[in-house]
Task: structure prediction
Amino acid sequence: MTQLQFPAPAPATLPIRGSAKSYAVARIFCVGRNYADHAAEFGNQVDRDAPFYFTKCPVHMARSGATVPYPPATANYHHEMEFAVALGTPVFRVAEDAAMAAVFGYATALDMTRRDLQARAKEARKPWDISKDFEKGAILGAITPATEFGKPGPQAISLLLNGEPVQRAHLSDMVWPVPAIIAHLSTLYHLGPGDLILTGTPAGVGPVRPGDRLVGEVDGLAPVELTVGPQE
Ligand code: MN
Result:
């Protein structure tokens, strides 16, 4: 192997509950508008033809428990509480009824968003990247193996902001359930171990400020916790 001009970035990894091993994150896919009540709060309609996606770089990921600086270039930094799926088996063009076999485990996640930049991008029909994919813009909890979690559906998903409940729904409220997302995304990419899918946020997203403390929970999973630091 040739010598690297600069050191390679440290791999993005997540702890796995009950295991000494960790999960190396290769890609982060995010589903947009997957809860009808959240789509409605921005005046959008859910697209019932197919889910849509954006991505976040693994180097932009932070682990639960982090203090994350209020990011630059925004005055409207928002929380989005999400349920994340971590794949463990390669799949391509997988059928819905076979898709769940590709899942290794699940985690809680925060899809942090520079909402003002996203609004401007939408208006100008420009990409969402700088509004969604920025440093420490994805916060992930530890992974719980699928065998311990069971089937996603009845579990509650919720977010507390400084102890006050701001987002609450059930995983069964998703427009596109997990098997449908994996099946559809596998028509676009060769999916496999290291691929994380954030499955969208329920209603109740909103701004956070320096000093705020977020605790996101999904029944049966390790929580995701975040403290917002001063603006950079
Ligand atoms: Mn989201």
